[in-house]
Amino acid sequence: MNCSNREWTKKSLKKDLIPGAVVMVINATDTLYAEAFGHQSLTPKRHINQYLSEPQKRIFHPDFPSNSVTLRKILSHSASTATSRQTHVTELSIQHTSNWLPQPPGTVIYYSNEGNSLAALVAEKVSNMSYIDYVEAKILKPLGIDNNKIGVRLADFSNIEDLVQHYVYAYNEFSLEVWHEKLPKFNIAKISDFPTWLQIPFYEFSIYPAGVLRMSARSLATCLQMFLNNGSSILRHRTIV
């Protein structure tokens, strides 16, 4: 079906108040054409509370309780979750979900590490696996990436000296002071032999679903190719945001 016919089909469904339809053309032996239009369901996607199954710890926006918080909204950073200074995954995911933006979920995009942690918690509940075990078994292993050479914690590596060192450029004599104010716990230090560079010690943090998955450049390239191919052969299309 060409583009004009697709547009005609969409307009016809809208005109006749039909939410969705599947168009198929067949003969006695083959399917010549098949395409879905519109919506499979008009109801909101499943609220994350249906996955968490914890009645005493239900998650919703206190000012907009009718606006569901779904995985799609979380993964697209549009669930209206604000930032938090807490460091533990449990605290980020459950205890501090009172930290919301003043807009209803689904109406504004705001990057949220806490949202990523909440999505990881859902994955753990549904799969009955730890998040990193799930990622290794369902994504990295099918991609052919050696799980012994990746990790989110420093303890995952037998020799951290193999990891790339972290540096930041010192623009002037006040750079170190500025970094200490921004990241006091990182113990950023000067390098005696290279005065224009500062060294950041190896670090990790508990909201690892939002980042710090360490791997080789080759393995990272393999992951990026998966996304460039829309997750084909690894992920089902509906799981890709």
TrEMBL record:
Q: By its UniProt entry, which Pfam families does this protein fall under?
A: Beta-lactamase
Residues forming the Beta-lactamase-related domain are 66-236
Query: Which protein is depicted?
Result: Beta-lactamase-related domain-containing protein
